[in-house]
C-alpha cells in the first residue's frame, strides 16, 4: 500500500542523510526506507549488512537496530500509515454506500499519490517480489490492514462469519498488492492507485440478502 509515513519523526541522536551530535534530533524514517530500498535493489537484501545500511543512510548501525530491530521492519515500514489511511476512509464512508464501493474507495485512498513515494514504492515492490524472505512476511506484515478491513466488512454485514470477513479482506489485500506489483513490473507508468482501482473493480461483495435467486 502507500509507502509513506504520516507519523511524527522518531526521536534519536542522528538523522538519515548525515550524522548529528546532541539531542534531540530525529530519524527520518521515509529517507531511511528510501536509501535502504535503493541499496537492496543494487546489492540484494540478504547481502546487505547493518553497517551497509548505516553507510547508505548516515545513521549508525546501533541507532538503526534500536529503532527497527530487524531489517524486515524497514521493508514493511509503509504498512502502518497505509492502514491509517484505510481506517480514515472507511470511517467516513456513508452507510448507504454499496459495501464494495466503500471498500474499493478506501483501499485506493490508502495508496500514495505523492510522486516521491511512488518512486520509492516501485523499488519496494520489486524488492518484495524478488526476495522470498520478505514475500513470505507479507501476510503477517499486512495483518493490521487486513484486520481493519475485515472489521469494517463485519460491521456492514453482521451476518457474515468473522472468518469469511477476514478471508474477503485478505483477498482484497492480495488483489491490491498484485495490481501494485504489476504496475511496478510494467514500468511504473501512471498512478498506482489507478492500477489498484482497475483491479478491484473485478471484485464484488454481495450479501446473501441482496443476492439474486438462482
Number of domains: 2
Q: Which structural category fits the helices and strands?
A: mainly alpha
Overall CATH class of the largest domain: Mainly Alpha
Note the main sheet. 2 strands, antiparallel
Number of discrete helical segments: 12
- The CATH superfamily name of the largest domain is Tetracycline Repressor, domain 2
List keywords for this structure.
3% strand, 12 helices, disordered N terminus, 214 residues
The gist of it:
With 214 residues, this protein is an all-alpha fold. The protein is built from 12 helices and 2 strands; from the N terminus they run ββαααααααααααα.
Structural topology:
Elements: E1 10-12, E2 25-27, H1 29-43, H2 50-57, H3 61-68, H4 71-75, H5 79-91, H6 99-109, H7 115-130, H8 132-135, H9 138-141, H10 143-156, H11 162-185, H12 192-200
Antiparallel strand pairs: 1-2
Helix pairs in contact: 1-2, 1-7, 2-3, 5-6, 5-10, 6-12, 7-11, 10-11, 11-12
DNA-binding region: 49-68
Protein name: Transcriptional regulator, TetR family
Region (Disordered): 1-24
Describe, in plain words, how this protein is organized in 3D.
There is one protein chain. The protein is mainly alpha-helical and 214 residues long. The protein folds into two domains: 13-18 and 25-74, Homeodomain-like (Arc Repressor Mutant, subunit A); 79-206, Tetracycline Repressor, domain 2 (Orthogonal Bundle). The chain is 61% helix and 3% strand. It is built from twelve helices and two strands, in the order ββαααααααααααα. It has a two-stranded antiparallel ribbon. Helix 7 (115-130) crosses helix 11 (162-185) and helix 10 crosses helix 11 (162-185). Residues 1-15 have a biased composition (Low complexity). This is Transcriptional regulator, TetR family. Residues 26-86 form the HTH tetR-type domain. Keywords: DNA-binding, Transcription, Transcription regulation. Residues 49-68 bind DNA.
